[in-house]
Amino acid sequence: MGDSRLQPLVLSEDERLVLQGWAKRRTTAQGLAKRARIVLACADGLNNTAVAARLDTDRGTVSRWRTRFLQRRLDGLSDEPRPGVPRTITDAQVEEVVVRTLEEVPEGATHWSKRELARRVGISPTSVLRIWRAFGLQPWRTETFKISPDPLLIDKIRDVVGLYLAPPANAAVFAVDEKPQIQALERTAPVMPMVPGTPERRSFDYVRHGTVDLFAALNTATGKVIGRLSAQHRAVDFRDFLDEIDRQTDPGLAVHVICDNLSAHKAPVVHKWLLAHPRFDLHFTPTYSSWINQVERWFAELQRRCLERGVFCSLDELETALEDWIKTWNEQARPFKWTKTADQIIDRICRYCDRISGPGH
């Protein structure tokens, strides 16, 4: 075989999916994750030197795993057998652990624990955990999903993503949504500050001093946010927020507003307002697809950095904190970068639908 540095490394779709899964591992199988990232970088057309610089490793390591993959594909990334104590766990026991984990549950429970499965198979709990790690199994974890039933799913994805990746000329694009029922929570005891060796401590119970709704419009080009606090989020409140966006946007620009399918966004009072303001155009996200609205990413930052650990002794304190947060954000605003094309998103949804529509489901 010729010099591996001169051979193109091309991945099949299945190989890429497997490698991407391995590359995401953080706490287990670190060696395998690193090798997967090396191969994925090589498949992007980079040479060994460029891959080594990107992944902060040496060129010899990149060359070794590139060559091993070209020779043996995915099997080449596994560790070679090493000398040591003979194995005490048979292949049949490994298979039993994997099969029981995937196809059975213990009586009276929803999933296996390592101790329950160890007793059933006749090996140690540590061995069960090692097998789970080797096969990427985590029976204690669960995730939720929802496939949008929107009949216009594809059209709406193309519409919204098109505004992110190729916004119209002479136009402002805003990602808009409400964060309702933000609570002004006061802890029942003073927060104990962090000291060396001890994290910040707070009482688990609280006193609630009321709630407020926040309307937010994220300018996808600049990252700046227009915010408005309201006691409710009715159609008339949304209409008033559109007025606020209108006042703060250059009158010479068309305005594209991305929002979800809340009934208040489609109410007659809003429709009447839009007819009186023809420069505004509303674009609706697919049903159950808030992930495509960029302002949700901003709400996540607001929750993590302002609200989650905030202590507010009154509704006024909460409102002041929200206004200050928006002001601080806008002083150093930068836009979120959208990278996925509409075709990539649609292809991924189709692959996921294929998986959950198989015989096992």
Task: Tell how many strands the DSSP assignment holds.
Answer: 5
CATH topology of the largest domain: Nucleotidyltransferase, domain 5
Uncertain residue segments? none
CATH class designation of the largest domain: Alpha Beta
Residue-averaged pLDDT:
87
DSSP strand content: 5-15%
Count of alpha and pi helical runs: 13
Give the % helix: 40-55%
Q: What layout of secondary structure does this protein have?
A:
Elements: H1 13-23, H2 30-43, H3 48-55, H4 59-72, H5 91-103, H6 114-121, H7 125-135, H8 153-165, E1 171-187, E2 206-219, E3 225-230, H9 235-248, E4 254-259, H10 268-276, E5 280-284, H11 295-307, H12 315-331, H13 342-356
Helix pairs in contact: 1-2, 2-3, 2-4, 3-4, 6-7, 8-13
